[in-house]
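User: Predict the full complex structure for these chains.
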Amino acid sequence: MLAKTTEAATHRDALGITGLSLAIGTGADTVPLLAGVTVRVGRGETVGLVGESGSGKSLTARSALGMLPRGARTTGTVTAGGVDVLGAGRRELRDLRRTRVSMIFQDPRASINPVRRVGDYLTEGLRARGVSAHAAGEKALDLLGQVGIRDPLGALRRFPHEFSGGMLQRVMIAGALSTEPELLLADEPTTALDVTTQAEVVGLLKDMQRAHGTGMLFVTHDLDLAAAICDRVYVMYAGRIVEEAAGSALFGAPAHPYTRALLEASPSVHGDRAVIKAIRGRPLALAESPPGCSFRDRCPLADDACAGAVPAHRRHGASTAACLRPEQVTP
Amino acid sequence: MTLTIPALRARSARRRRRRPLGLVLAAAFLLAVTLTGLLAPVLAPRSPDATSLLDSLAPPGTAGHLLGTDSTGRDVLSRLMYGARLSLIAPLGVVLLSGTAGTVLGLLAARAGGWVDAVLSRGMDIVFSFPSLLLAMLVVAVSGPGLLAPICALAVGYTPFVGRVVRSAAMQEGARPYMESYRVMGFGEPWVAVRHLLPNILPMLVAQSALAFGYALTDLAALSYLGLGVRPPAADWGSMISQAQSAILQGAPWSGLIPGLAVLLTVVSVNVLGEHLGGSIGRKREGA
Amino acid sequence: MTARTLAAWIGKRALGAVLTVLAASILIYGALRLVPGDPVLALTAGRRLTPEQIEAVRHRYGLDQGFLQGYLGWIGDALRLDLGTSFNYQTGVTSLITGRLGVSGLLVAYSAVLAIGFGTAVALVSAVKGGLVDRLASVAASVTTATPTFVAAIGLLALFSAGLGWFPATGAGDGFADRLWHLTLPAVAMSIAAFGVLARVGNAAFAEELGREHVEVARSRGAGGAAVIRRHVVRNALGPLLTVAGLLVASLFVGSAVVETAFGLDGVGSLLVSSVSRQDFPVVQGIALIAVLLFVTVNTLVDLALPFIDPRVTVGGLGR
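Assistant: Here is the predicted structure of the three-chain assembly.
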């Protein structure tokens, strides 16, 4: 199956999500969750997806694996590892998950079966692909060494509860990389960890991604972290992408008021910004957003024009933002 | 694949709040059975003991015998109505006795703690490891057939069933801050237990008692079926089934199946009721 | 977990089990002394005995001694597999029981296989499929859980034996195949309530494990549907299922008293019932003692197996 990754495939993106809209329920009970989400991850590229809880960032990441909520209806396209995910059958999805796309989850303690040994977790994906037990074991041993687990041989035989959260997240990273994927989805991989281990795990993730040439979609609520490690960053609000920017440009020149508000709200001081102090109100889900710009109720720059229609993405500096007046955010 | 989406959760919660049909049916059935038992002398079409060999083994629907007759020509419907009395009163006795003993011992164990708790808990564990029907048979082997001895034996057998739950609930409830504040105010231990602890664990106690009622009814009916329970001419549903055994093999099963169905439906209804009480308490706890 | 702590823990559990059985045996022996009046009257239950015989009974049961001495004599004999002499059969209780263990053992094993096999199968299918299947299974489980064994027995007799004539109504049959055929209806009757309990508990356990994040993660890694169920759902639900199955199998033994009587089988259960009604107390005591021993043994074995099934259950945690 690995052989299918042909020469031609190396030129395409690891992930291409275009105009993805998603809703669950029917009739009057319809709940829209995503609207027109477009996200691209090039091969070997690190892309951040930032938003508050309920913004739809995890759902967007999961759509790359075809892991949609029960009864979800979608429009748009999702192409991961060259596979049309939304149109894929059960078998194609399974192959995609086994070979080309891996995901790392928030809570390693909940994500690894507690009654099975760590070695079992690491080799499960390979064994499912028909790799021999011995070869899978060798590979797992190698990966455990790479992610910095001491005594990898002993670790294979231990149970998850015998590891700390940080060590377990390293195990999960090793498991995700065991299949040599071209796309890594990292869903808040450090949120459940101690502050001291967070930096280590992020560093490891970057190293491993660089070493294996994997594209990575890094989902987080931490804009500072995303800006620091990502080539490009998407900011999500209420089921929509509101800004796309180069990671390096984000601190200096946010183009959307929400991005700027997020930067302001973070406790670290990045420079001389005084216009926006705190975000009023609470984050909204797509289903409860007002017509027009979803952020306008909380935006200090909003006026009647913002209520008309959802603003189209427009270029501003190094970014594109779904805002009518990005020049007022960063001149 | 489960993604937690608030809107979805709200909808399923709305669905759960509807009163389930099963609960209504169960309550109605139990009410009907209780009333027929109470009013048997008024409602029963015939005497439950009037035999008529000419009319023996008449099928249900026979004129004058709505549910047919048994092998000695007794009216099954009338016997069913009278049989409801003993079939319900005996397990009620078990539940009242074991509920009282279990509550007292459970509260005592929880509040006294220390060696009192250790002895009581271990004792309840030991009784719990003794199948209740076996305990009842052991007592009948000494006392001879009859209902009084097995009622007492089952009451002992089910005491841990109530007591263990009361103990753990009382321990949980007793650890809450408001309990401490009563003690600080100088109220005595028994007063606090009866006045404040008991009302809080009462719903759970009722639910557990409902389940125990179902078990006790089954055990007592089984004893009567085995000829170890009620002594003739008194009859309950279990002894009706026992007397129908030969008729069943002759191809006339209703005189046994009808009381069997009565036992089954009563136990199902009691269980449904008990589970609903237990479940609604759980939900309330979660919400708090 | 070192070998030493493991051995200490197993020893502790075994000691607890022995103490429980001993306490229960005091209860079994003491039942005789609880009756008002002269225990000999209860023991002999109206049988005409010569004064010498009465004196012999009195001595046999240690009634001419204090409670403790009497009990120690009885339990000491029991430990040497001497459970006394039946009043009714005038033979040793031990040989009476062992002669009937074959039928009862097969019956209990047969119904345990039925209850555990069908119970877990229904639980798994209903938990995985959900929807209508789940609701139907839930109703079926509620009804079967509440079905008393003797009601199931007469229902099956009426339908499959007297009605359709598919299965014999009485007797245990000769030869293995014939015996299985004879024991099928009794085993089904005995297993019905246990089936219901397992179907419910199993459904809850499977549903809980199905909802766990690691199951979703396994799917996200492309594990096949059947493999996920087997490796992550069934495997993880094994602990609670085993606990319940242990309790049920132990209680089946008591259920055999009802079923063997209903189907006219010559087993330990029917011996217990006939001995109770004849007040043949030595037999009742012996069977009760064996029943409690089995009940406690099965549950202790299950307890001992749990840490090996779920590595999170630590020996230290259980050993308290």
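The radius of gyration of chain B is 23 Å.
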